[in-house]
Design a protein that fits this description.
- The chain is of the alpha+beta class.
- The protein has one domain: Beta Barrel (Thrombin, subunit H), CATH 2.40.10.
- 18% of the residues lie in helices and 41% in strands.
- The protein contains 4 helices and 12 strands.
- It has a 6-stranded antiparallel β-barrel with strand order 1-2-3-6-5-4. It has a 6-stranded antiparallel β-barrel with strand order 7-8-9-12-11-10.
- The longest helix has 22 residues.
- It is globular and about 70 Å long.
- The termini are far apart.
């Protein structure tokens, strides 16, 4: 009987030790996507569409617009409103000498503003645009970020949830209405360099989308989508011979850090 009680006590003690060790495991400081809809409604107001005049399907129409990519609004010196996007988004327009426009929400509805290229960082695929609002003093309804919300790489924590608003596949700006598509993911890899990887789908049109890290009581602008990682599917014939290799989106997106983008913003001339 004494031996049985001793064995029982020993098992209970081991159980308590296991529970104690389990409690030492790190827990998330907040459920990453709990209340995400509140953050999304606010953060997507900072997204802007980068466009050029034109029409891809109906040459008879003269008032259509072609989406080049996404962007987001930041506050520059002298309270100037600037738009950040990818260099490759505006590159084709610049080569063909087409004017680039940025779509913004205003008190008078959705408007497109002619934009000058204020700075280009070729190494990191960054372009800073300066929208020209002209003589019409129209009040913006869009959200403009100042440097107090820029991340210094401390919010780039692997496993942290992120929001990625933008215009994938040219969705979100139909009929001159601004309704960005909100996607989400997690930080998949960050090694302290100027770029990071996200476990999240980014499509054509998401280039230039801002990336917001979600944390309890604090959202941080951690960077911008520059591209997605492509993988291939091999198609074989009935004899097992390779007939074709088709690219597909691997579900990983590349981004450049806000710390790197902030340096580009400081170099902008407008």
């Amino acid at each position: 009987m004494i031996k049985l009680r001793f064995v029982t006590f020993l098992l209970l003690a081991l159980g308590f030790v296991c529970v104690a060790h389990a409690r030492e495991l790190p827990f998330a400081d907040a459920v990453p996507f709990l209340g995400m809809e509140t953050s999304a409604q606010e953060l997507k107001k900072a997204v802007c569409a980068v466009q050029i005049p034109g029409n891809q399907t109906n040459e008879e129409k003269k008032d259509d617009w072609i989406l080049l990519g996404s962007g987001f609004l930041v506050l520059g010196e002298r309270n100037a409103v600037l738009a950040v996007t990818c260099k490759h988004v505006v590159e084709a327009a610049l080569k063909t000498k087409k004017q680039v426009f940025v779509g913004l929400d205003t008190e008078k509805g959705y408007r497109r503003f002619l934009s000058n290229v204020a700075y280009i960082d070729t190494n990191h695929d960054i372009a800073v645009l300066a929208p020209q609002r002209g003589s019409e003093d129209v009040k913006l309804q869009s959200l403009v970020f100042d440097s107090s919300l820029y991340d210094d790489d401390s919010a780039l924590v692997e496993g942290r949830g992120v929001l990625i608003p933008g215009y994938p596949l040219s969705l979100g700006i139909e009929d001159d209405q601004n309704h960005p598509v909100v996607r989400f993911g997690i930080v998949a890899q960050f090694t302290g360099k100027s770029y990071f990887l996200l476990d999240g789908v980014a499509s054509h049109g998401n280039s230039g989308s801002p990336v917001f890290a979600l944390k309890a009581k604090e959202n941080r602008l951690i960077g911008m989508i520059t591209s997605h990682v492509t993988d291939t599917i091999n198609l074989l014939d009935e004899n097992g011979q390779l007939r074709a290799s088709l690219p597909y989106n691997a579900g990983l997106a590349r981004g450049v850090t806000m710390k790197t983008i902030a340096a580009a913003i400081k170099n902008a001339k407008y």
